[in-house]
Amino acid sequence: MMANLGTIHRMTAAAPPALPALLWDIFCKVIDNYGDLGVCWRLSRELAARGQRVRLWVDDARALRWMAPLGCPGVEVRAWTQPLALQGVAAGEVLVEAFGCELAPELIAIYADKQRAGVINIAWINLEYLSAEHYVERSHGLSSPVMSGPGAGLTKRFFYPGFTPRTGGLLREPDLLQRQADFDRTAWLRQQGIEWRPGEQLVSLFCYEPGALPQLLDQLASQAVPSRLLVTQGRASAALQSAIENKNRLQPLWNARGMLSISYRPLLDQIDFDHLLWSCDVNFVRGEDSLVRALWAGQPLVWQIYPQHDDAHLSKLEAFLDTIQAPASLRRFHRTWNGVNQGPLEPLALPAWGEAIQAARAQLLQQPDLVSQLLEFVDSVGA
Questions:
Q1: Euclidean distance between CA atoms 371 and 255, whole angstroms
Q2: Strands 227-231, 123-127: pairing kind
Q3: Which end of the chain has less neighbouring CB within 10 Å, N or C?
Q4: CB-based contact 91:122 (threshold 8 Å)
Q5: Which residues are catalytic?
Q6: pTM of the predicted model over 0.90
Q7: Per-residue pLDDT reduced to its tens digit, 247-296
Q8: Are strands 155-159 and 143-145 parallel, antiparallel or unpaired?
Q9: Strand 143-145 with 201-205, pairing
Q10: Is 26 helix (H, G, I), strand (E, B) or coil?
């Protein structure tokens, strides 16, 4: 039977806390695609599930209305305004600066004053972006004492998520495997109103605007088995609709056999987004949070990495492909999907890709999850 959101909260809340309850201030700045907020919400929710108290400060919390409509006990969402409203705010024990966002000096001063008063040793964590590059192992856990300014006397420590035992690991709930085992794919699809026929290949699409998207449509339309594309709302649905309009104008018979069906999905909360990934035979994902969730889904995946103006994202992509020991066909597909190569899109080879993802997932499951490691890390620095 499929677990609903309330059940998941109750199941996760049973996890024993790794250290006494602390008050965490987590700061998140929404850039453009809500991935930062998605990571910070999962982190906040999991900390609360393990007995911690969390104040999540975010400059634009609108996406939480659909991402986490029920909220979470133990997590208080606060507006990150300019200037920051600090009247009556007492410093917690842990200050988390997510993805290098710059904190208000007056807030840092409140924490520094608390430490100078000898109340407690403050843990100031800079939670970095996820990467498989080698520098992550070298940088994880490094400290940077603050010598001047409002934070003088504090020490900022860098915590890097990652794919190896010498990093901070990946976000993962303790009951994840049990929930996956209990998941009823057919029931969930029916609940979502998706007209899925047994034997139909399900493909999730959560992307930016990949140039190779028209080629993917051609592949799915020409396969021997029917496919249904489950398209997330936002940039992915806009990109797909544009691609289909162009194809209908230039190649009106491109899907003449009707082998490809399209289902546009509404905005999904984080729990149902996981269910979407668990339901599909191959997942096209983007950014950081959905990549991790696709890895835990254990199905073949294709990642569109967030593009950077200096092409630094390409090294990050190659490092990830090395980490999962991606077969050659999956590497070629990724390079074309991410615009590195301009040639034809590699044919889908789902059995081989699935074996690689399953092997990578099994290895990652042997490593402690990010929240467990973060709790131990905070405990070790004396908070």
A1: 46
A2: unpaired
A3: N
A4: yes
A5: 36, 288
A6: yes
A7: 999 999 999 999 999 999 999 999 999 999 999 999 999 999 999 999 99
A8: antiparallel
A9: unpaired
A10: strand
